[in-house]
Design brief:
The chain folds into two domains: 2-244, TIM Barrel (Alpha-Beta Barrel), CATH 3.20.20.70; 253-324, Non-ribosomal Peptide Synthetase Peptidyl Carrier Protein, Chain A (Orthogonal Bundle). It is built from 15 helices and ten strands. The chain has helices at 24-31, 45-49, 53-58, 77-87, 104-108, 119-131, 152-162, 184-193, 207-217, 234-244, 253-271, 273-287, 294-302, 306-318, 321-324; strands spanning 2-4, 7-9, 13-15, 37-44, 68-73, 94-99, 137-144, 166-173, 198-201, 221-224. The strands form two sheets. The chain has an eight-stranded parallel barrel, surrounded by six helices. A two-stranded antiparallel sheet has the order 1-2. The radius of gyration is 20 Å and the shape is globular. The structure holds flavin mononucleotide. Residues 16-19, 41-42, 71, 98, 100-101, 140, 170, 178, 201-205, 225-227 line the site of flavin mononucleotide.
């Protein structure tokens, strides 16, 4: 069980935000396999303040998609206040602030992981957010800017002092991006230093790695990111593995293809057929990861209609088992 402010979640496994991926259909699919708490992808406070149509679409949620956190990215207190005014009209449960994004354009604008180099500014921004919302506020950080400036403990203490109700830490530096080893040690030090819940992120790719991440860091929860791509079963499998130690069985191909069709349906309802099918192409590849289906994958990347994509999913189901073994 995980409690963040007044939000209590039965599972300690959280769906981490991923830009371009964590939309409503993706969250619903992961929730159907036991993900308890999910986040939107990072939402630019500036784009929100200017009510960009694409950005407002990213705020879409349903009653089944709760509890839900919205993650905002920003560096200007006035813009952030305007963004919070807009968010007040939406049914979110948590506001998460991004101090972790390593993208050059973001950090050079003093946002995302750029804030790890400006702890006082980050603390001030967190206070602004806390003073301008009634929701619990969390923050997502990294271990530091680079190997020579690991400052997550200082940053995390400041965040707690500012009044955040929970902290997410990706155990890599900004410089590492998404590569290299995850520093369990620094995540554990952050956990030890705080009273608020700490959720660990980094290589939560399998039930075994999730167990290791929790065990080595002592954290209250684990955030699953790349491990859930085409693999929403990770929530069911990891919960079972944490409870009983039972090693997960690979889902049957019928369960995989059923889930693919459900996901495709949700995406088409959300985005319309043309954009939806294009968006689903990469999910087809993720669901079929490790399968020996080069030609089918290429066809999926060229599919334009729902019927075409469904036919390819049916073809996948009909493939000989030897081609499907991962
Ligand atoms: C494609 C992609 C997009 C991401 N977008 C976000 C984001 O919008 N906000 C955020 O806080 N983290 C983002 N992340 C970071 C993940 O939430 C997570 O912290 C990171 O991938 C480490 O977990 P993993 O090694 O288990 O994937 C993103 C990661 C990836 C791979």
């Amino acid at each position: 069980m995980l409690s963040i402010g007044n939000v209590t979640v039965v599972s300690s496994l959280v769906l981490a935000p991923m830009a371009g991926i964590s939309d409503l259909p993706y969250r619903l699919i992961n929730r159907s396999f036991g993900c308890g708490l999910a986040f939107t992808e990072m939402i630019s406070a500036t784009a929100l303040a200017y009510k960009s149509r694409n950005t407002l679409k990213m705020l879409s949620a349903t009653d089944q998609d709760r509890p839900l956190g919205v993650q905002i990215l920003g560096g200007d207190p006035e813009i952030i206040k305007r963004a919070l005014d807009i968010l007040a009209g939406y049914p979110f449960d948590i506001i998460d602030f991004n101090a972790a994004c390593p993208v050059s354009k973001v950090v050079s604008g003093g946002k995302g992981a750029g804030l790890l180099r400006e702890p006082v500014k980050l603390e001030r921004l967190l206070k602004v957010i806390i003073d301008n919302t009634s929701l619990p506020v969390t923050v997502k950080i990294r271990s530091g800017w680079d190997e020579a400036s690991i400052n997550a403990v200082d940053i995390a203490r400041r965040a707690q002092d500012a009044g955040v109700c929970g902290l997410f830490i990706h155990g890599r530096t900004k410089t590492q991006g998404y590569r290299g080893t995850v520093d369990y040690n620094i995540i554990g030090k952050v956990k030890e230093s705080l009273k608020i819940p700490v959720i660990a992120s980094g290589d939560a790719l399998t039930p075994q790695l999730i167990k290791k991440l929790l065990a080595e860091t002592g954290c209250d929860g684990a955030a699953v990111a790349r491990g859930a791509l085409g693999n929403p079963w990770i929530f069911r499998d990891a919960a079972e593995y944490l409870k009983s130690g039972a090693l997960p069985c690979r889902p049957e191909i019928s369960e995989i293809t059923r889930t693919m069709k459900e996901h495709l349906d949700l995406i088409i309802t959300f985005r319309g057929e043309k954009t939806g099918v294009m968006h689903f192409r990469k999910f087809f590849a993720w669901y079929a990861k490790g399968m020996n289906i080069k030609k089918l994958r290429a066809k999926a990347f060229a599919a334009n209609t729902s019927d075409e994509m469904v036919r390819l999913i049916d073809e996948l189901q009909a493939m000989p088992a030897s081609e499907l073994s991962r």
